[in-house]
Amino acid sequence: MRLLRGRNALTQPPRRAVVTIGMFDGVHLGHQRLIRTTVRLAKRLRGTSVVITFDPDPQRVLNPAQAQPRLMPLDARLGFIGALGADLAWVIPFTRRFSRVDAEQFFREILLKQAGAVAVVVGENFSFGRNRRGNLALLRAYGRRDGMRIVVTPPVVREHEVVSSSRLRRTVQRGEIASARRLLGRPAQLYGTVVRGEGRARQLGFPTANVRLVHGLVQPPHGVYRVWLALAGRRYQGLMNLGIRPTFLSRRAASRRNGPIPVVCEVHLPGFRGNLYGQSVTIALLAWVRPERRFAGPEALAQQIRQDLRRTHLLPARR
């Protein structure tokens, strides 16, 4: 997939461009339908499938205090878009200036002039332009006027509710791992970089990769999860603890009110040998194991970790 970044990065219209537009945060089943429809139509027309997306999220620019956490960083979003077969991804920086582009200007400058779109694929609730005043009826009117085909895909429904980024966000935040997988068609994921920790897990006999999670992304509830960790094209099965490690907090520190206790993400990979420091990793959430809780001491915690590993079939059961 070819990648362009910048408001004016598309200097020459692609051949017979079929375009879809959106944030595509999470690249859930609804987004996948839009992108696959775009790719199929472009192939049928012997043209180019183009995905237009934005960075940062418009809400972080226009109303940062109310902005919701994202589901994935931009690079991961682009990776999934490319995997769906798009020929070209065009990332337009979303700024306050860009937010003032009205619907007519967006249609003429972005879709007609720069992209040279012969067709646009959107969902039923699509809106565009300043204050989202451009609706589907207006887009169809512009399309008829300028000879551009407008294709509207129906929403994807799962469990009697439309699949959306906001629904997926709530599902992950509630720790509903199986439901999130049904909305995505794959496991929900966390993203981060491996950093040095304090070495406590290694002292317990369960060395972990300490992952500094990307700031501003959705997180599930604190607890223990069965996961796989992806690194350099390979996957490693493991057990993740996400939380504040209450066993190692003093009672006073655990109850302090002068600021939040940092959240730590630790992943134990049974049998793994290697140096992960500084590596960017993806963590897929496969199953909820148990909530995080305080233990009487390190030995009690180590005993529980062994039980968690046996329960998740990551450690052979005792004979």
Notes on the structure:
The chain has 319 residues and is α/β, with parallel strands linked by helices. It folds into 2 domains: 2-162, Rossmann fold, CATH 3.40.50.620; 187-311, Riboflavin kinase-like (Elongation Factor Tu (Ef-tu), domain 3). It is built from 11 helices and 14 strands. The protein has helices at residues 29-44, 58-62, 74-83, 96-99, 103-114, 136-146, 165-173, 177-184, 200-204, 251-254, 298-311; strands at 2-5, 17-21, 48-55, 88-93, 117-123, 149-153, 157-158, 161-162, 189-195, 208-213, 223-231, 234-243, 264-268, 280-291. The strands form 3 sheets. It has a 6-stranded parallel beta sheet, sandwiched between helices. The protein has a 6-stranded antiparallel β-barrel with strand order 9-10-13-12-11-14. Helix 5 (103-114) packs across helix 6 (136-146). It is elongated, with a radius of gyration of 23 Å. The N and C termini lie far apart (52 Å). The mean pLDDT is 92.
